[in-house]
Amino acid sequence: MTAKILDGKKLSKEIKEKIANDIKALQKSKGIIPGLAVIIAGDDEASHVYVSMKEKACESVGMYSKSFKLPGTITQEELLKIIDELNDDEKIHGILVQLPLPPGIDERMVNERILPSKDIDGFHAINHGRLFLGEDSLIPCTPKGIIELIKYTGVPISGKHAVVIGRSNIVGKPTAMLLLRENATVTICHSKTKDLTSHVRSADILVSAAGIPNLVRGNMVKEGAIVIDAGTRVVEDKLVGDVNFNEVEKIASWLTPVPGGVGPMTIAMLLQNTLKAAMMK
Ligand code: ADP
After folding, report:
1. What does the entry give for GO biological process (predicted)?
2. Which of 71, 109, 116, 158 has its CA 20 to 30 A from that of 151?
3. Does the Cβ of 166 fall within 6 Å of ligand 1?
């Protein structure tokens, strides 16, 4: 079997076109232009690249965006003050704080300061909690994009065995929760899992988000599985996932490339969440 490529670039483009139309309609009916504020502190190169991609994406769909490029010496208090101002800013519907933050700043405290209704990353405890309860909420962008990609295959998720590698609050845990919501039987694997291969081998749907290049090899994957590679590591200036693409391509039915799979979907979901936040007003 040769896997079909799950093209996140193509799907995200389709989603962005729909978002652009919805923004035009929202502007017409209610006079609202969705606005996103992006805060970045310090000069981590990869983070600056992500922020400029997000700015460009906003522009491409007709969204308003405002960036705060802060020095790495910013204090927590100063950062919280900016968030307070953005919470009160009528033109801003979504607030995103690019991680990682400089040392000495408490990421959780910063996330908790953003109004849940403007928390388009879905990292506030209220939004995590709503996701856990199965209530409507702002859902973290990468997990949301992963589910969209799986749905795009047309293969039903219900009743399938889904294995998620990684239990981070940003990717692994919320992805597992969303798969559960779609009625999959879900296994979460992590760094203390014994015999990763035995779990992965029975996965109809495999999502890997460990950030370990070459973690998922061809001989671990079930014939015909859907494989989503959400790993992001920069190796020699190149973005690499967790999955050995050449090996797994011969076994899986569907496979996401890196780059061009989960990454573009994350940005499309960020725009979708900002639009949703603006529409909730
Ligand atoms: P992200 O938030 O991008 O998913 P993190 O680095 O925060 O990435 O989390 C990596 C996750 O991968 C952790 O939950 C960790 O337990 C998991 N992990 C790391 N090594 C392995 C491994 N060998 N097998 C399975 N899971 C692993």
Report:
1. L-histidine biosynthetic process; methionine biosynthetic process; purine nucleotide biosynthetic process; tetrahydrofolate interconversion
2. 116
3. yes
- 37 C-alpha vs ligand 1 centroid, how far in Å? 29
Beta pairing partners, 95: 37
Q: ω into residue 259 within 30 of 0, thus cis?
A: yes
pLDDT tens digits, residue range 47-79? 999 999 999 999 999 999 999 999 999 999 999
Cα(191) to centroid(ligand 1), Å: 6
Identified catalytic residue from 16, 22, 118, 121: 121
Residue at token pair 């909730």 = 280
Answer whether 230's CB lies under 8 Å from 262's CB. Answer: yes
* Separation between Cα atoms, residue 191 and residue 143, nearest integer Å: 19
Cβ of residue 165 lying under 6 Å from some atom of ligand 1: yes
Residue 209 CA: nearest ligand 1 atom is: 4
Four-point Cα dihedral 95, 121, 261, 188, nearest 10: 170
Count the helix, strand and coil residues of the chain and give each as a percent rounded to the nearest 5. 45, 15, 40
Q: Is 99 in the pocket of ligand 1 (CB under 6 A)?
A: no
Per-residue pLDDT tens over the stretch 77-118 = 999 999 999 999 999 999 999 999 999 999 999 999 999 999
- Which domains, and CATH codes, for the chain? 32-115 (3.40.50.10860), 141-263 (3.40.50.720)
